[in-house]
Amino acid sequence: TADRIKILRYMFDARHSTERKLWSGDNLSTTDIVTNVQLFPQYHLAYTEKTFKIHNSLVTRWNGSQQEAFYTFYLPEGSVVTSAALWVEGEERPAYLTTKNKADNAYKKIVGVERRDPLLLHWQEGNRVTVRVFPCTPKEDRQFKIGITTPLRKVEDQLTYENIDFEGPYWNTANESINIVTEGTLSNMETPFSFQENGLNYNYSGPYNSRWSLAFDAAPLSTSPFSFNGNSYHLAPYKNEKEDFQAEHIYLDINAGFSNREMNKIYATCKGKKVFVYSNHRMVALNDNNKKALFRQQRGQNFTLFPFYKLDPNKKNLVISKFNQLTPTLDDIKTSEFMRLTSDFFSKTISPVRVFNIDTDISPYLRTLQELRSIQLENGATNVLLELLATDKFYKNKEDDQTIVNRYGGFELKESYDPTPATNAPDHLMRLFVYNDLLREVGKNYFNKAELADALIEEAKEAYVVTPISSLIVLETQKDYDRFDIKKARNSLQNASIGDSGAVPEPGEWLLILLVLTMVFWMYFQKP
Length: 528
Known about the structure:
Layout (H helix, E strand, L loop, with lengths): L1 H10 L3 H4 L9 E13 L4 E12 L10 E8 L5 E9 L2 E4 L1 E4 H15 L3 E7 L3 E9 L5 E10 L1 E3 L2 E5 L2 E3 L7 E8 L13 E3 L2 E7 L5 E5 L8 E3 L2 E7 L4 E3 L4 E4 L7 H10 L4 E6 L2 E4 L5 H8 L18 E6 L14 H12 L4 E6 L5 H8 L3 E6 L1 H10 L1 E3 L7 E4 L4 E6 L11 H16 L5 H15 L6 E6 L2 H6 L23 H19 L3
Parallel strand pairs: 1-13, 20-21, 20-23, 23-24, 24-25
Antiparallel strand pairs: 1-2, 2-9, 3-8, 3-12, 4-5, 4-9, 6-29, 7-8, 7-29, 10-11, 11-16, 13-15, 14-15, 17-18, 18-28, 19-26, 21-22, 27-28
Helix pairs in contact: 4-8, 9-10
């Protein structure tokens, strides 16, 4: 039964609906959403806070009216959750950041046994996070908030802010208020909504719409650093540079997404090189005699999980793949022999394996390996791949211990151990760097991450970022935190918030903006 559920989860993109729940949420609905966005165009970043109202429509007099709300949020590439809060008895309670195991244990104990107030937020593979809120009763609507730091997508000379999409209790009839504040004018802004513009503010109120974005001209990238605890973080433009790379072994990860024309072109360009496909549990060298039969066999697969552990670590390897259908995540297959061998292989490799993915869609399997820096994955059209193969070139891996690359935002994010004077750069620079740095540190021992938690949790707490080893939780009382040994982070950035980051408006202007946002928020959620 467990294996069938896993197959259902990835084949039909049903992860959200098949997640474990301690309590039912059948009678819950999302009635109101407030989205507050702070844009940092000169840093190619944004910070988004979404506040949700949850209503329980069940009419009953017994304890079964208590239900659990479960949400899945789909984040733009490179994004990280940096705050959360739950309203308890009408008061906003900010979340504590702790290890994933501590947060999970506290939530299960309080929800499953004691049936009191918690919120739990976990990192998930594939640019996802999940949120659980309990209890949601007919007596009172529940409110919670999630804050997300995200890069702005850069394409040529334009930046795009993409809405944070989600799945959760019925939301088709929800209303939404959107409030955007930004530094400076957004030139040539394009949006599907009729935003009301008021100086540096843009506002919308109406029915909820999940698919919207803002596009505007890219501002010059600021290199002013953010400094904290003796370290500095600054941006630099990313340039996609090539270097000489003569692949000794080339592996075609073929599935139904490949066309015969594509495969024949790739094979012809690789003529004279050692090219392999994985067939019948072994790597088979392609040649003129067997390629037609092997291509036909491999194209019968809807998806593949390429066995990287079959690669010769002493060779210069290149894997060529293409997305066709959703695949299992690493967590789905964590107890398998395949995953044991894969984990052991990557724990011993020094440099990421080079992978070229045709087109832009990426399988969940490869995306997670990319996030963990186990592979260096590059995207592009078939003609780009053919040029790289013909010229024996590949893209440089420009990441190291002090550099994170974000192609989505078109920047490199660098850490310096030389403290610099404080500037008004947003603290989100540090949050993004630490998040990606922790993914890299966890990557080589992904399935032993619980053992890494104690060593790495202080780094996550300092930047207050949700990662594979850190989660956010809200409990009802301080005694609850003490009981589960969940301590408030010290010398930390704490929960992110609108207005706390960056040299945007002057203090007097911020006071006015925050006053307006507070009034809008209060009026919106006081509706009957």
